[in-house]
Amino acid sequence: MRAHFVLSEIGVGLRRNLTMTFAVIVSVALSLALLGGALLARKQVNSMEDYWYDRVEVSIFLCNEVDAETDAACSRGPATEEQREEIAAELESLELVDTVYHESAEEAYEHYQEQQKDSPFASVVTPEQMQESLRIKLTDPTKYEVISSAFAGREGVQSVTDQRSLLENLFNLLNGVNIAAVGLMMLMLVVAVLLIVNTVRVSAFSRRRETGIMRLVGASSFYIQLPFILEATIAGLMGALLACFLLLGVYLGIDGFLAERIPVIDFVGWDAVFSVLPYVLVTGIAMPALAAFFALYKYLKV
User: Fold this and answer.
1) pLDDT digits over 200-213, tens only?
2) Considering the entire predicted model, what is its pTM?
3) Which domains does the chain have, with CATH numbers?
4) DSSP 8-state symbol, 123
């Protein structure tokens, strides 16, 4: 009997506030889709950082004849074979260093010609202008400063560069976009909560006579509140399910379109998407229920 009454009250409430319920569903769906998108974006950035930072190399460029005439760091002359071997030996003795690869000026010239074959400068660059270098793979790419402080300014060393610095701007941009998405998601969640609170109070006001009678016959506050809370929860659940479908649809497009056309990005897999969906569903259920409970706490208190 009690379950039938509660269900009937839920049906009445949803029918009376159909437009506002629809607005709640849409706002909850958008805010939770942004929540899921922000969580996936965070996973994507972490995945890209692990993927690219693991491939980062530190390069020690050695002085050549041209640098000795034009670069103050090479004023003591071009690097000798003994200096190069000494630096390589010191690098290999460090636990931080995984591998050391020597690239001669001729090899650097060949790589440059392959990479810049369409550039007008490729035809005027000579092997003598290219620098030989030591390419170092680190066990921990974040410890680049150790190599830089140890070898920058050494005799025969023109410069020490880290490819990681080239990626930091990209990842800072991605983190900024993710923060903006989180901010927009928080704004949408606030809008959704306000809509839920307003919808529940309008529904409670329209049924104030019924709730007053229930209070007079001894019904508990929770029993009076339950239909309103369940109305909000159902609307939130519908919004959460819609948000899940939106996330699945967007990722389906990413997996079927972008992943094939942008192979340099290691996109997160379906496992990451499915790991986010429970958070979306739980938030979609808990947020409206709590908002309705606190909205009705003082309203129904007599």
Assistant:
1) 777 666 666 666 66
2) 0.63
3) 1-52+168-300 (no CATH), 57-162 (3.30.70.3040)
4) G
